[in-house]
């Protein structure tokens, strides 16, 4: 017992008093020598009975410096007695209090401990087949630790304080390999608290482990300088919160699985571009991770939440997008090396894609700012995003995802989308709504191509959109849109003329069905209400309707159109152009009904002086049954008023959507005041218009690319005023033409048929109508009597013919005079000039014969007078054949010229032929007699017309002419030797 007691005493003395200073001394000397740094220890305590070791106040200085590199307050180790019989080291408790570490980065790749890592090069020890030593440690704790990191090149300092580590138990002994090791960790990293817990079986065959880590308020800006790549953007602020659990498991076959789950969040992110301009910011981006299994390539996101994102998109004048900076990171290394040609890794099969799913994505309170400076007129807009919700999104695409989104465009227009979509299968079934989307902010994207400026307009629409991916579709997708749309409160300005161009209150499209493949459009109803259109002809003669789209200045100029020919009957025709190649199939279009209500159209012509303006008001009507299907026609009904006075009606059967347009139209406008047309009249006719009203009745038919049209023009009381000095005015006698066309009621009633081929590239309905009118005026002036003849009796009225040598109006001439009288009575403004034309060659002999006949008839009148019988005019006396010889002889004997005599000196009796020959030979007829004949004929015609209600004030006698027949009119010789010719003024 004494020896035992002595042994205990010696053991106590050795443990309590001898070993502590020895351990302290060895620890200080050996550590200082090995570390090349000053090592200090305040105290070492050993309790041999409790088997504990305590080291207090250990500190290690910086090399060649008094700055502390590493220190701790106390290290406590409690060795368990079980170590003596369990074949390994068993520690009951290991505690480290107040550890402190100071790390300094001196330069790139050099730290204040770099020398400690430069171990001498030694040959590797031979591999040992011995088993690793067995151990068991319980109650491991680190409390109150801290780490100070001084990054001198970056001039940054970092602190980790309050480091606490707890590990209840760890062992590789057989009895404990299936017991979980559960360490925990907490610290404050640069003010951000960090918590972590671990459950692990590091020495079991499964290596089963679990790590739970919580990190809050980590300032990202403090760590971005250590990113190995050069960032093209500036991160002004940002916080990171992490709360994740990592699980690892490996089975006996070596198959490993790694599961990561938890929640992480980025907060108060503010990213700027290299110039400091705003780029991306958001309040919170939270990811709730259900499971991440990297070996199985599977990720499950339960929820992604994005709060208050603020994205600024800028396109500079060169078309460069600022967001591309996010993908332009420059790596600090030389870059990845391309695999060599013989490298088998280059031939490796690509990995299978991740099997991913997203339970819910939420975006709240977002804002997208867009500035586009690549346009002549910069665009600036914004999109507010109150909310976007996406649910059940999956990379496998077994079920469609759900979406609900609502955004505000430029603070007013609202866009909404609800429904489902499947990005994997390429399918979407969505309900789309648009409310009050303003068009004005988007003008920079079409203003450069148009000569109009949109000053107001809102788009409203809603409908169902169905899309499906299709490899056989030219656009890669098939689908349909069904719904309705309204373009309301619209207004556009004609920029070249600085005038209102278009405006309307509502342009509605109802029951719209749009199919993408094959492309077709069906619209149940279109309604345009309270609309206004301004049609302007510029000072250069250009129509604004044809100048809506700006022409390319470098585009080739089209050749001028050839003038259109006109037929002699006022029927214009155009040459048939060669038929073009077969046109492409027309896209199917069907429109159930188009309704127009409350429309105004204002026309202004600045090309003429003074300017002309007209208004078409109160336009209403409808079109029903419009379709591109061959053989179908739509019905058009249109009503309106010209200047609130003249009613306009249009009724038609049309089919403008078919490959070959069809038109059967009737239109009528009544009582249009013509005084506003005085500008055109003065410019082209040379006279202003004092009064007059116009009515127009038209019929147009287009079938098989051929136009047949009738234009009935009715002008009432057209009166010209003062002459206008216009270099473009016609030289034709317009007043005469109007007088010819105007009846006694002051009316001009014309029918102007036209026809032409739509295949002619120069075809123009307006050009045809103008050509017909010009031809009509030319015909009226050049052949006025032919025009009157076509209106009254259908024959030429420019002259009447007389029998040679006679002055009696023949029945044929009288019929012609009747028609002429009707024409003059119906055309009270016309004045008639009368002149006789006598052919001296043919009329002289005829006049001698008439003189002979009159002398014979005079002899009979003497007999009748003696008998008391009234005889009347000489020309009315009838001579019978049996009495003619005796009467001729009496007339012959009464003549004073020398006559043949018999032997006793008496006048010799001669045969009839001889007497006639002598009387004709000695007839006293010459040019004067011929002139008297012509004057007599002209007077008879004048008197006949006066007797038939033609005022003598309108008839003027002109001197007669002795000339060969036909020369007076400059035409071909006529059969008649005598005429009375007419001219009009």
From TrEMBL:
Comp. bias (Low complexity): 332-343
Q: Name any Gene Ontology BP term.
A: regulation of protein targeting to membrane
Give TM segment ranges. Answer: none
Listed under GO cellular component are: plasma membrane
Note down the stretches annotated as region Disordered.
326-351, 559-579
Please indicate which superkingdom the organism of origin belongs to: Bacteria
The protein's name in its UniProt record: DUF748 domain-containing protein
Question: What is the organism of origin for this protein?
Answer: Propionivibrio dicarboxylicus
Q: What lineage, starting at the top, does this entry show?
A: Bacteria, Pseudomonadati, Pseudomonadota, Betaproteobacteria, Rhodocyclales
């Amino acid at each position: 017992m004494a020896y035992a007691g002595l042994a205990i005493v010696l053991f106590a003395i050795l443990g309590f008093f001898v070993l502590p200073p020895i351990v302290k001394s060895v620890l200080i000397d050996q550590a200082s020598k090995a570390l090349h740094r000053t090592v200090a220890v305040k105290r070492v305590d050993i309790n041999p009975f409790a088997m504990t070791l305590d080291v207090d106040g250990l500190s290690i200085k910086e090399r060649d410096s008094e700055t502390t590199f590493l220190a701790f307050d106390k290290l406590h180790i409690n060795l368990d007695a079980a170590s003596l019989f369990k074949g390994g080291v068993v520690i009951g408790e290991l505690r480290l209090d107040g550890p402190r570490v100071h790390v300094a980065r001196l330069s790139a790749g050099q730290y204040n401990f770099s020398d400690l890592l430069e171990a001498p090069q030694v040959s590797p020890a031979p591999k040992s087949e011995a088993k690793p030593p067995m151990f068991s440690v319980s109650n491991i704790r680190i409390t109150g630790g801290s780490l100070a990191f001084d990054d001198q090149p970056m001039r940054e300092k970092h602190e980790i304080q309050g480091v606490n580590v707890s590990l209840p138990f760890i062992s590789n002994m057989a009895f404990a390999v299936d017991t979980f090791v559960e360490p925990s960790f907490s610290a404050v990293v640069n003010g951000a608290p960090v918590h972590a817990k671990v459950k692990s079986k590091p020495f079991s065959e499964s290596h089963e482990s679990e790590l739970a880590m919580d990190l809050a308020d980590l300032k990202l800006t403090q760590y971005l300088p250590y990113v190995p790549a050069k960032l093209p953007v500036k991160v002004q602020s940002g916080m990171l919160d992490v709360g994740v659990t990592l699980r690892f498991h490996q089975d006996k076959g070596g198959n490993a699985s790694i599961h990561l789950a938890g929640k992480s969040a980025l907060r108060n992110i503010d990213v700027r571009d290299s110039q400091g301009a705003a780029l991306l910011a958001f309040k919170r981006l939270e990811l709730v991770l259900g499971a991440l299994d990297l070996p199985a390539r599977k990720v499950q996101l339960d929820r992604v939440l994005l709060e208050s994102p603020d994205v600024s998109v800028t396109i500079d004048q060169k078309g460069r997008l600022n967001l591309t900076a996010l993908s332009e990171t420059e790596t600090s290394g030389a870059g990845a090396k391309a695999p060599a040609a013989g490298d088998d890794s280059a031939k490796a099969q690509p990995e299978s894609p991740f099997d991913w799913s997203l339970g819910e994505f939420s975006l709240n309170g977002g804002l997208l700012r867009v500035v586009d400076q690549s346009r002549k007129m910069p665009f600036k807009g914004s999109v507010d995003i109150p909310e976007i919700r996406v649910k059940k999104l999956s990379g496998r695409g077994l079920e469609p995802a759900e979406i609900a989104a609502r955004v505000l465009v430029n603070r007013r227009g609202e866009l909404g989308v609800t429904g489902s979509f499947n990005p994997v299968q390429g399918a979407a079934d969505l309900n789309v709504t648009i409310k009050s989307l303003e068009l004005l902010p988007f003008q920079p994207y079409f203003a450069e191509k148009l000569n109009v400026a949109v000053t107001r307009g809102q788009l409203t629409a809603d409908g169902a959109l169905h899309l499906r991916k299709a490899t056989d579709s030219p656009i890669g997708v098939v689908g349909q849109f069904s719904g309705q749309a309204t373009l309301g409160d619209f207004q556009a300005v004609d920029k070249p003329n600085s005038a209102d161009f278009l405006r309307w209150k509502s342009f509605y499209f109802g029951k719209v069905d749009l199919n993408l493949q094959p492309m077709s459009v069906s619209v149940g109803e279109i309604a345009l209400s309270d609309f206004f259109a301004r049609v302007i002809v510029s000072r250069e003669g250009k129509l604004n309707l044809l100048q809506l789209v700006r022409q390319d200045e470098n585009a080739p100029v089209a050749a001028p159109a050839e003038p259109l020919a006109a037929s002699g009957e006022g029927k214009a025709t155009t040459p048939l152009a060669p038929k073009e190649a077969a046109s492409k199939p027309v896209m199917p279009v069907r429109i159930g009904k188009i309704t127009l209500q409350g429309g105004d159209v204002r026309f202004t012509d600045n090309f003429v002086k003074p300017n002309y303006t007209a208004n078409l008001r109160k336009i209403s009507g409808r079109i029903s049954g419009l379709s591109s299907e061959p053989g179908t026609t739509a019905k058009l009904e249109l009503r309106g008023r010209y200047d609130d006075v003249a009613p306009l009606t249009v009724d038609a059967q049309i089919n403008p959507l078919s490959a070959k347009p069809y038109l059967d139209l009737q239109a009528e406008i009544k009582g249009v005041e013509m005084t506003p047309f005085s500008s055109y009249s003065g410019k082209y006719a040379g006279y202003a218009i004092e009064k007059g009203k116009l009515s127009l009745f038209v019929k147009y038919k287009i079938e098989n690319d051929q136009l047949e049209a009738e234009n009935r023009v009715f002008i009432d009381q057209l009166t010209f005023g003062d002459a206008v000095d216009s270099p473009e005015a016609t030289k034709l006698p317009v007043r005469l033409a109007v007088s010819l066309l105007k009846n006694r009621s002051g009316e001009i009633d014309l029918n102007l048929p036209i026809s032409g081929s739509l295949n002619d590239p120069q075809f123009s309905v307006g050009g045809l109508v103008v050509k017909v009118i010009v031809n009509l005026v030319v015909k009226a002036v050049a052949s006025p009597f032919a025009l009157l003849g076509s209106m009254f009796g259908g024959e030429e009225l420019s002259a009447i013919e007389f029998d040679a040598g006679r002055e009696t109006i023949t029945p044929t001439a009288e019929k012609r005079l009747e028609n002429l009288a009707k024409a003059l009575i119906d055309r009270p403004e016309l004045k008639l000039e009368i002149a006789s034309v006598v052919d001296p060659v043919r009329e002289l002999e005829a006049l001698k014969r008439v003189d002979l006949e009159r002398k014979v008839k005079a002899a009979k009148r003497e007999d009748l007078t003696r008998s008391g019988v009234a005889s009347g005019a000489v020309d009315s006396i009838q001579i019978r054949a049996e009495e003619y010889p005796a009467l001729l002889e009496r007339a012959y004997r009464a003549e004073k010229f020398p006559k043949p005599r018999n032997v006793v000196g008496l006048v010799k009796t001669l045969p009839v032929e001889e007497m006639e020959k002598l009387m004709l030979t000695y007839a006293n007829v010459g040019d004067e007699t011929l002139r008297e004949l012509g004057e007599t004929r002209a007077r008879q015609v004048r008197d006949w017309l006066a007797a038939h209600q033609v005022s003598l004030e309108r008839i003027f006698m002109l001197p007669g002419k002795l000339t060969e027949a036909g020369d007076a009119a400059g035409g071909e010789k006529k059969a008649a030797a005598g005429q009375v010719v007419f001219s009009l003024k």
